[in-house]
């Protein structure tokens, strides 16, 4: 069974565009929690009427790019969900997370 990731406060996933979830265009961290894990995490959207889960998978693109990114299987759904997101038009989702393995 997947283990729930415990957090003391509500956890949010913020999108400022369709691909970059780690920092905004000014270099300010957006979802710092994405860099804390080294295994796949299933994210469930608390208030969603559509598909309500996506998986983030670990990757290591060197010193500046590592952490979690959206899985290939969920990429089309994710792109549609956050279409139009920008630094001035953020998409913010309250979520819960579980490790998938």
List the helices and strands and how they pair.
Elements: E1 11-15, E2 41-45, E3 53-60, E4 66-70, H1 75-81, E5 91-99
Antiparallel strand pairs: 1-5, 2-3, 2-5, 3-4
Write up this protein.
The chain has one helix at residues 75-81; strands at residues 11-15, 41-45, 53-60, 66-70, 91-99. The protein has 101 residues and is mainly beta. The chain has one domain. A five-stranded antiparallel beta sheet has the order 1-5-2-3-4, with no helix packed on it. A hairpin with a 7-residue loop joins β2 (41-45) and β3 (53-60).
β-strand amount = 25-35%
Enumerate the spans where pLDDT stays under 50 for 5 or more consecutive residues. Answer: none
- In one word, what is the shape? globular
**Total number of beta strands:** 5
Terminal CA distance reads 8 Å
Alpha-beta content class: mainly beta
Element-by-element helix/strand order: EEEEHE
How many separate helices?
Answer: 1
Q: How are the strands of the largest sheet arranged? A: 1-5-2-3-4
Which radius of gyration do the C-alpha atoms yield?
13 Å
Number of domains: 1
Summarize model confidence as the mean pLDDT. 79
* Helical residues, percent: under 10%
Biggest pleated-sheet summary: 5 strands, antiparallel
Structural descriptors:
1 helix; mainly beta; five-stranded antiparallel β-sheet
């Amino acid at each position: 069974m997947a283990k729930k990731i415990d957090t003391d406060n509500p956890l949010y996933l913020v999108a400022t565009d369709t691909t970059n979830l780690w920092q905004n265009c000014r270099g300010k961290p957006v979802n710092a929690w994405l860099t804390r894990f080294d295994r796949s995490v299933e994210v469930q959207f608390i208030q969603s009427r559509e598909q309500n889960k996506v998986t983030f998978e670990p990757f290591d693109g060197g010193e500046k790019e590592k952490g979690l990114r959206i899985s290939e299987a969920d990429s089309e759904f994710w792109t549609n969900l956050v279409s139009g997101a920008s630094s001035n038009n953020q998409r913010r989702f309250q979520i819960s997370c579980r490790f998938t393995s």
